[in-house]
Write a structure and sequence with these properties.
Radius of gyration: 21 Å
Number of strands: 0
Largest sheet: none
Strand content: under 5%
Shape: globular
Length: 211
């Protein structure tokens, strides 16, 4: 089963969506052409490219100290944000009669990272050959990749849920609100758990002291 989900055809189709986003995402929703494992691996590769860029891009365009970059923490952060986007969008679109499944959203978001991933990696390489006043070329390459990723994400949400452009924009805004609410609830939950443990520990310490 996993071999089929990670087959060469699945990888080729992921890159097909870059050149044909509307048709590609339509096929993902209606003909199961996509693959969640491939989408997750693409997100991981994107995170690796992002971390390498922060560590290795030329000093002309990068003032970050390489030793301060923690690739593992950034990978966890990217995967958590990916999960938040998928769950947030799914929770919102369920209330707005969206047609897409959580699986379709996960694939659309994962595949949408390809342009940013490629352009960030390309920008990292090109930055090594730039002169002091040529940083604009780097920012243009990275900017184009991020912009196209946002475009693919817009088309992906619109296509898998069968929404109009206006409804898609509203959905994306509400997804961001949902993400903030999820983060707030999770933080509240962990704070509550921490208070409960602190209360139990104080009772235990009091009993030990009295004994």
């Amino acid at each position: 089963m996993m071999k089929r989900l990670l087959s060469m055809d699945k990888w080729k189709y992921a890159f097909y969506t870059v050149s044909h986003p509307a048709d590609g995402f339509y096929e993902i929703r209606h003909r199961d052409r996509g693959s969640v494992p491939v989408a997750i691996i693409l997100v991981i590769i994107f995170s690796v490219a992002f971390s390498i860029n922060r560590m290795s891009a030329s000093f002309i365009v990068n003032d970050i100290e390489p030793g301060t970059v923690d690739s593992l923490k950034e990978l966890v952060a990217v995967l958590m944000f990916y999960l938040l986007i998928c769950v947030g969008n799914w929770s919102v679109t369920c209330l707005m009669e969206g047609k897409g499944r959580l699986k379709d959203i996960a694939i659309a978001v994962g595949y949408s990272t390809i342009p940013a991933m490629v352009c960030i990696a390309l920008g990292t390489i090109i930055s090594q050959f730039l002169a002091q006043d040529e940083g604009a070329f780097y920012y243009m390459i990275v900017g184009v990749g991020i912009a196209y990723t946002c475009f693919m994400l817009l088309i992906g949400v619109m296509t898998v849920h069968n929404f109009s452009l206006g409804k898609t924009l509203v959905t994306i805004f509400l997804t961001l609100v949902a993400i903030l609410l999820i983060i707030f609830i999770v933080m509240l939950f962990f704070d509550l758990i921490n208070q409960v443990f602190s209360f139990i520990r104080s009772i235990y310490q009091e009993l030990v002291y009295r004994a």
